[in-house]
């Protein structure tokens, strides 16, 4: 799973605690009220194996 967090947003620590890690990829971000960078983060999801009943 991937997401992007604006560098100036203080919630990066939250996403790290949720198991996301920066990919090293950073892209320019230009919002209505700020210009910054978007830090791409990802988390590996566990695959779920279905069992028949």
Summarize the structure in words.
The chain has 53 residues and is mainly beta. The protein is built from 1 helix and 3 strands; from the N terminus they run βαββ. The protein has one helix spanning 12-17, and strands at 2-6, 21-30, 35-42. The protein has a 3-stranded antiparallel sheet with strand order 1-3-2. It is elongated, with a radius of gyration of 15 Å. The model has no long low-confidence stretch (mean pLDDT 91).
Task: Set down the secondary structure blueprint.
Elements: E1 2-6, H1 12-17, E2 21-30, E3 35-42
Antiparallel strand pairs: 1-3, 2-3
Percent strand equals: 35-45%
How would you characterize the largest beta sheet? 3 strands, antiparallel
Order of helices and strands: EHEE
Average residue pLDDT: 91
Count of individual domains: 1
**Rg, Å, rounded:** 15 Å
Strand order of the largest sheet: 1-3-2
Decide which structural class fits the backbone.
mainly beta
Overall, the morphology is elongated
Quantity of strands, as a count: 3
